[in-house]
Design brief:
The chain has about 170 residues and is an alpha/beta fold. The protein is built from eight helices and four strands.
């Protein structure tokens, strides 16, 4: 876990992995992409974390994170590296599913949505309760994502996966 671009030796690691024939998919929050683009050009794909509108993204990730992620997306695209937006959905950012789909479509990048994991430990934390989606909210968000996928938006997941998620939780 953590931000890979904080590693000073990341360029060496990536080059070695490529030399060994690995497919490299780098996930980043976007910080340091501009400073380290020469070291990461060798990757096969980059995933940039972006959870929604500037307000909702920065509410959870910190002020300025939205702008940093969008800047990173543009830099990665300008360097010809395939890129995907990865959105972690919370109760508030689930309202941004359409926004992100429109952004992905306009930028011609794939989107992957993840549901924030509702572990019992995390649910018990008083300051985190308002971000977890309940089962009905998860189904509603999944229905919207499936609708967008069927409408031709660049959603990463197959329809069958989204349809299975509609049965959440598995019984």
């Amino acid at each position: 876990g953590g931000e890979a671009l904080l590693r000073k030796d990341l360029g060496e690691i990536l080059n070695y992995a490529k030399w060994k024939g690995f497919y490299i998919n780098l996930t980043t929050n976007g910080y340091y992409v501009d400073r380290r683009i020469d070291e990461i050009r060798c990757v096969d794909a980059i995933v940039v974390s972006l959870d929604g509108t500037e307000h909702n993204n920065d509410k959870l990730r910190g002020k300025g994170c939205y702008e940093t992620a969008v800047k990173a997306l543009k830099i990665v695209m300008a360097n010809g590296i395939p890129v995907t937006i990865s959105a972690t959905l919370t109760r508030s950012s689930a309202n941004d599913i359409q926004y992100l789909a429109d952004l992905g479509k306009s930028m011609k990048v794939n989107l992957q949505y993840s549901i924030l994991y509702n572990s019992d430990t995390m649910k018990a934390k008083e300051d985190a309760r308002d971000i977890w989606m309940n089962d009905d909210e998860i189904r509603e968000a999944t229905s919207k994502i499936l609708e967008l996928k069927r409408a031709g938006y660049p959603i990463y997941y197959q329809e069958e996966v989204l349809e299975a998620l509609l049965e959440w939780p598995a019984t």
